[in-house]
Amino acid sequence: MALAYSYSNLAYIANEAWQKERNAIILSGVQHKVDMEKHRAVIQKSEDEVSHQKFLLYSVAIGLLIVLIALGMFLSQQGKLKNTYTKLIQSEKMAVLGQLSASIAHEVNTPLGAIKSSSEESIEAFPEILTELSWLMHTLNKEDKKAFMEFLVTSNPAGQTLSTKEEREIKKKIRDTFTELGVENNRYLADRLVQVGIYDIQPELATIAGHPHFGKLMQLTYNILNQQRSNQTIHLAVEKASRIVKALKTYIHTSNSDEMDTINVRDNIETVLTIYHNRLKQGIQVVKNYDDVQNIVGYPDKLNQVWTNLIVNAVQAMDNNGILNIGIQQQADYVVVSIKDSGKGIPIAIQSKIFDPFFTTKSKGEGSGLGLDIIKRIVEEHNATISFQSIEGEGTTFYVKIPVNKM
Ligand SMILES: Nc1ncnc2c1ncn2[C@@H]1O[C@H](COP(=O)(O)OP(=O)(O)OP(=O)(O)O)[C@@H](O)[C@H]1O
Ligand SMILES: [Mg+2]
Prior knowledge:
Elements: H1 2-139, H2 142-154, H3 164-181, H4 186-195, H5 203-208, H6 214-255, E1 261-263, H7 265-275, H8 277-281, E2 284-290, E3 296-298, H9 300-317, E4 322-331, E5 334-341, H10 371-381, E6 385-391, E7 395-403
Parallel strand pairs: 2-4
Antiparallel strand pairs: 1-3, 4-5, 5-7, 6-7
Bound molecules: adenosine-5'-triphosphate and magnesium ion.
């Protein structure tokens, strides 16, 4: 009995121990599971974080890519714009050169015409002069020859041209003096003398007035002085033609160079005025008001374009008739160029638009509305400024203020 009890007690103890062991195992399993869960949660959290980081990274990369693409597009657009702008300037230049060619052809043709007629006159008159001189040698006595030569040497023909009224008055005075001196055919002789620039009767002329061959002597005088006149005309015409050719050369030379240079603004403007002389001379009075100013540094070609466009605008605003004032002044470290016209002025309503590209009030073919836009860009390239004042019905003045050596 006691054995049975002990045995069952032992069995109970053993069972209890086993139960404990089992519970411990179960507990440790549960603990392990909990730990596993915890680890899994941590891992999950890390994974979430990693994917979040990845997402952020991808977003940044995509953002960067978009920025890069946009930048590329912007740069290529800028390049295209610059290209278009360069082409615009180029085509403006070509249009100006086209207009100029016609003007230049006309400008050079005028002195060439003068040279042609003067040289023809000279060639024709020369044999006649030789005949008359040989007559003079044989016919006149020593004193008469001396008196005639003295008159010729001192005759000093006037260079200035006369108004019709002045010419009429001078001819009348000469005729009256000839009448007093008893000279016949005085109307014809007075006309010829005035033609070669003799505007009054000097004592040397009065001395020979009584000569029996006075008419013939005056004819010889006319031929000799006319020869001199023709030579002067030829000389002036050649000077004029070479001035135009020189200006054209300067203009074309600068039109081909995109390089910065030291610029004398006065020469720069004078080149444009010489080139445009033909267009201006028809009804425009050009008044120049130039001070001695410092040289500036810039693009001569581009500045030519500024003056050309401003002058053309002024001439168009005046309908080819009026006064064009061009001023060059020094103001502290700036050279200020003013171009003033007596044209129709700019209405207040459009004053804020005139620098806009393609804004024009001119008919098709006369204006494209690019002149002032191009001028503005060129002015900005020179760190300069452009402004204007305008009164409707009275005229407009444009001012370009360029810094000296500040490029
Ligand atoms: N001196 C001026 N007097 C009156 N209006 C002017 C003057 N200069 C410019 N304008 C006005 O400003 C507008 C724009 O001038 P802009 O030079 O830009 O173009 P445009 O002369 O019309 O054409 P483009 O110069 O391309 O041949 C002109 O159409 C005109 O209405
Ligand atoms: Mg214009």
